[in-house]
């Protein structure tokens, strides 16, 4: 059952629609007639593997059928996903890309370090590939690992224009394995992506079929009583937000694919007992974040975003849109295993089978419980927050993310001597009730030295508070009295010009250890396009993320977090960052607007970097969504607390109401895209980074 | 003017206000940028041929939609039929809106038509410029035209605040100023209570105040009338939802006196059946 523009009559029994698990492609292989009737399943062409250093790629329209309905995909060489490109480190590859579409197209080589002109972003790297034209990409490969490619034009990625890249290392691969499979995940809709986008703009919760009901409210009242329920709902009601907003686009329209196969199509990979199998997971979705596990098998994660990491064994991991993770599994039993990739909102899953015999199948597990957002995801919970931001204190080594297990439900701030909260009027932050806090349970923490006056650089004087309806900062005098020179809106480099967000140059934490700079919301965040601001963002490093936090205690599954990732080889650029950019991910769910620092791409100046400099970027997520942020052209070196083995990533998940920091060496001249990789966030949550 | 004409009017095409937004598309000056200079290397290939897109529903690509994903500021049109319903006693009502525009600027039309006992009692159309001023609020300005059947038509200036209040109340507050200095105030609020994802109960209230007595329109100064509705709809899709409900209207003060003088009831409760839809 699919959503089209025409109203459809559905039976009440189907009211909680199960997402389409697709058609079994195998049917056509068994000799059923294809094409005559659109309801008859027909095999979709499967991707080939192309090797070498010369490639002719053709972007074309391709009839596909993932749901029982004929649709037209934008394919590469006739398949969705496009062919797997197998390259070799050290070689120069040449790719002739011919556009057979009626619109412009492009290919961006995601995660590949290359010259800006080869990066494939229309408007930044080149003009795009016009209909009928061929564009030749040529670049040298100075890296190895698992990557992918996709269109950077229009919404073609949603229509099938993506594929996998595997670069074999020049040196012997540190990861030994007997079999090597690419597993690219994606989301398919029978709707036009333009229709999806328009529906989201008109009704932001259109695809959310898990909105709160009267029944949910009743259950809550029975459990907690009216007073507590009212208290718990208060913030959400006052902020006009839903704690069920996990994914913008869901299984209501999506069918999730694994290597182009629907769950019913069941992509299969073979192994022999005792073999080591390397699975290269790539999230090639437009909008879907997946949680991956293989019931019955431990997964040893050996690479992240193409880069080898110190092996870490887990039961489950989250893969943001555009991230890649390589895992090695060693099945010891002669049985089949299900590769299970459920979406973050549990509205559907992609699935495949790892099996010793083609006829052996494994059980497909039920999806886990669907998560709801908490105060913590709004950046206003005290339990996990990193107070390092208050510059007078040195909390840089505190890892407060580990405090997860503590119960802060009844805080009493009695021990917090010097911290004077009396003047705060936080009422307008939507029901933040700190009255019952008992911080006595924080044991050894001495907060007696808190002086909000030392929050130095926080200058709120320029804020346009008109839209904040009732937020009273008048008592925050201490914040304004500090030393206002601590951050600059101009990057501390006047010659680079332009308003580019908040830059810190003094008192930076040393490389590898993240940020302790105060959280600054720019005036541009107080406009109609921004519906919330994280006042106290949590630490996104140790947090497995919404819906996974209790999987360890609940199911005994070890879940990968970013804090587990250490690069296999030592950090290359050992310099300390000279500047720190604090950039806020912002949006308005109701209007379906996305931006950075409240400014949409259309209105934003480029972020200017000086060639050769090493900076820190701290992303603060002022929204309730999980955003995978991708910087083109340069590595994002994730600060996980170990400066010796900083992992290099190209896409970094920023969790709701959290912050995360990474280092960037500006070693590539030119104009680069920097954006949220959720396709329908890209129109606004996008910046040009210009290295001069 | 009958309802059909009104609807046609309401659906009438784009206004100029929002056009501003269409020009906000970021155009990079590619010529100036040496990094981007003429990377096309396909010159030896045959001249570009016009490939035509197959007419597949999932490839829909409107002419105003840009090919660069980061420039994707598109102008949209939303038509909302809030209520299109038949009421007891040969009555009926249409309440709907059309907006056209971008994130900040929109042209916004609202219409309300009410029929009772086979006659159109009220028919109005508002044409407004709408501007986003806060995360959940639009400020709207424009004109309202009342199509009067028994007397002359009237025009009003409109200043409205439309949006979502805390606790998810959809609110539309409008201040009207007539040509002759008459004033009127209308407060509307609506809530949605989900029984399931598809069964939705929607209570709604509208309160009208006038600054003066107007015998021709049978409206009196002060609190004039209250209309309260309770509608239970079933969303076959989020865009298509038939409903049943009950509508209660009561007149107050001088307006009630006008009604009594005419021998009309001052309050009425009617069952309704109708359609809620948008596209």
Structural features, described:
- The complex is a heterodimer of chains A (692) and B (279).
- In chain A, strand 15 and strand 16 (307-314) form a beta hairpin.
- Chain A has helices at 26-29, 193-202, 214-239, 477-481, 551-555; strands spanning 49-51, 54-64, 71-76, 84-88, 92-99, 108-110, 134-140, 145-150, 162-168, 179-189, 254-258, 267-270, 277-283, 290-293, 299-304, 307-314, 316-319, 324-329, 337-343, 349-355, 487-488, 502-504, 538-539, 579-588, 593-596, 607-609, 614-621, 627-631, 636-638, 648-649, 651-654, 658-665, 670-676, 686-691.
- Chain A is 7% helix and 28% strand.
- The relative contact order of chain A is 0.11.
- Chain B is mainly beta and 279 residues long.
- Helices cover 8% and strands 51% of the residues of chain B.
- Chain B is built from 3 helices and 13 strands.
- A 12-stranded antiparallel beta barrel of chain B has the order 1-2-3-4-5-6-7-8-10-11-12-13.
- Residues 1-50 of chain B have low confidence and may be disordered.
- The interface between A and B is large, with 92 and 69 residues.
Radius of gyration of chain B (CA) equals: 24 Å
Strand content of chain B: over 45%
Number of helices of chain B: 3
Radius of gyration of chain A: 25 Å
Strand order of the largest sheet of chain B: 1-2-3-4-5-6-7-8-10-11-12-13
Overall geometry of chain B: globular
Oligomer: heterodimer
**Helix proportion of chain A:** under 10%
Count the beta strands of chain A.
34
Order of helices and strands of chain B: HHEEEEEEEEEEEEHE
